[in-house]
Amino acid sequence: MVAYRPSPITAFTPYTICQIACGTDHVLALTTTGRVYAWGNGQQFQMGRRVLERSRTNALTPRALALHKIRLIGAGSYHSFAVNTDGDVFAWGLNQFGQCGVGEGGEDGASITTPTLVEGLKGYDIVWIGGGEHHSLALTRDGKLLSWGRLDINQLGIPLSQLPSTALPQPKPRYLPVPTVIPGIPTMVYAACGTHHNLAISSAGEPYTWGYGESWQVGQGPSGEDIEVPTKIDNTATKGVKMITGGAGGQFSVLLGLPKPEED
Questions:
Q1: What residues are paired with 79 via a beta bridge?
Q2: pLDDT score, position 19
Q3: What integer best gives the mean pLDDT of the chain?
């Protein structure tokens, strides 16, 4: 059934929803009681449960996952995340490039079928987490950015010369299955993932981008080149503007900033 105007989801009538996260074709919703509901396409296990072909329409009904005391959710194109009040991060869904941060990825670990603890994020206080098509990004309370997943078009923001030995396969790695701190960047307060690119905003309100740039989605000028590491956008439009939020889509990005002070 096609909805031609916004309509309430009756399944949530007893609950108060405090956060929504969307992938390419699945949705997560977080209630104020710490429960996570999922619905949409579950062929890559991005809803944390098996969806049988003969009953695919049942997947359009929101159902709760076996998770409790969740305070934060996030989604990539075909994978999902949840963070509980103890700081544990769980991931599930498509994982062939290690974008869930669980196991080594590859053909043997192509999907994580149920919410599974991300060991590589233990000890970090995550305040935001999300993903693109085959990579993921997390922001910590003290302003660090960690990235993992596919890296062949600079999605991770980590210089190839500084990739850890956990990058696979060796000697010419295509992905990094272990969450890794992006080196050499300022303290960040905001981050967003596009399909193959990312943006972040520093504590000084300066925007940084990196990743696939063929459609100029990184905003780094007319060359349209990929950007290997987080690089500050410095042009007449952003100069003197304190950025406070933004977003990244498939082939575009947006930034929202405070107006420049009026000159006398």
A1: 93
A2: 98
A3: 93
Nearest to 246 by CA among 191, 209, 203: 191
Cβ atoms of residues 219 and 209 within 8 Å: yes
pLDDT, position 119: 98
125 Cβ contact partners less than 8 Å away, ≥ 6 residues apart: 87, 140, 141, 142
Bridge partners (DSSP) of residue 64 are: 37
The values of phi and psi at residue 53, to 5°, are: -60, -40
Q: Alpha-carbon distance 230 to 67, whole Å? A: 34
Residue 47, pLDDT score: 93
pLDDT digits (tens, 9 = 90+) for 56-112: 677 888 999 999 999 999 999 999 999 999 999 999 999 999 999 999 998 777 999
> How far, in Å, CA of 148 to CA of 157, rounded?
10
* Per-residue H/E/C for the chain: CCCCCCCCCHHHCCCCEEEEEECCCEEEEEECCCCEEEEECCCCCCCCCCCCHHHHHHHHCCEECCCCCEEEEEECCCEEEEEECCCCEEEEEECCCCCCCCCCCCHHHCEEEEEEECHHHCCCCEEEEEECCCEEEEEECCCCEEEEEECCCCCCCCCHHHCCCCCECCCCCCEEEEEEECCCCCCEEEEEECCCEEEEEECCCCEEEEECCCCCCCCCCCCCCCEEEEEECCCCCCCCCEEEEEEECCCCEEEEEECCCCCC
- Amino acid at position 147, single letter: S
Name residues of the chain where pLDDT drops below 50: none
**pLDDT score for 55:** 62
Which residues, in sequence order, are CB contacts of 235 under 8 Å at separation 6+? 219, 221
